[in-house]
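hey
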């Protein structure tokens, strides 16, 4: 990721209040129009993929942090 990408991620994801993020990621609610951004979509899809197939969406044993 570039510095610009990290800055965009910060603006799109980290600046949203936690209860709203929980609605998206835990409850699976659709993104509001003002939150329908690149990184929130990617993060929401990733969270859903891990819910659907946890072991298929995590690093294999060799690459996991110890």
């Amino acid at each position: 990721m570039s510095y610009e990408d990290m800055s965009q991620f910060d603006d799109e994801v980290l600046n949203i209040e936690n209860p709203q993020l929980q609605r998206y990621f835990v409850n699976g609610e659709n993104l509001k129009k003002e939150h329908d951004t690149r990184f929130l979509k990617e993060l929401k899809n990733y969270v859903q993929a891990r819910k659907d197939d946890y072991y298929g969406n995590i690093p294999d044993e060799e690459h996991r942090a110890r």
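The two ends are 24 Å apart (CA to CA). The chain has a mean pLDDT of 88.
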